[in-house]
Each structure stands twice: as C-alpha cells, then as structure tokens.
Amino acid sequence: MSKSLKNEWKSAAARQLVAFAKAETVEGAIEKIANNLLNDLTFPPTDLSLLMRRLDVVRCRADKSLWGSGELRQADDGLEIIYSPGLSPERRRFTIAHELGHAALARTGPRFPRAGREVERICDMFATEGLLPRASCL
Length: 138
Hints:
alpha+beta
C-alpha cells in the first residue's frame, strides 16, 4: 500500500478503488479509470451522455423533490442519475459527473462503498477528472 494511501485515505472505498484499478494511489486510480472511460472521446466539453452509456446509466433526470443536488439510484431497468432542477448548467454538469463517479465505484465490486466523506471526495475528484482530464491539459 502506498504511503499516500496509508496516510491520507482511510476508507474501504479508497482501498477498493486502488485495488480495482491496480494503481498506487487514489489519484492514480481515478485518473486511470477516467482515462479508460474517456478513451476515444473528443473534448472539451466531455460528452456526459456517452459516459453515462459506458457506465450503464440508463437515464438522467431532474426531480424537484430531491433533497440534495444529485444522487445515483438503482431503477428497475438500471442506474439513473437524479439532479435538482434548480442547478445552474455548470453545477448540473458537475453534479452529473459526480454521480457518474458513484457509478464508476459501483464497478469496483459487488459490495462497493456507497456513502461517506471519502466516497464523496472520490466522486468529486472523478467529476473533475471527467470534465477536465489531465491528459487534455498536456
């Protein structure tokens, strides 16, 4: 286990993500998974609908009764992203990308971590990498 993972990341989510991606660090795992998902996409902007299909998300919709800004739900026909209709277009894109991070975590194993401070941080990092990949900055 890397020094970064030992000292900074403490959750099962972090350990599972690093093991799944066969990476040294959480940051490396997120970059590796995002790069695989973004392979052959043209950006900016990132085509979130294509990422949704690659992560088996069947739909994305607004719900005015939603308490927070967004969530990933299991529906009868697959995963769906729900977001608050009051979000600005930029915030809506980030929220959708964050929820795609939860969908990516769902691929790490049958008992994937669903909640917690580090899970939310990982999903924020996934959203950032998905919307502005490091590879596009080089």
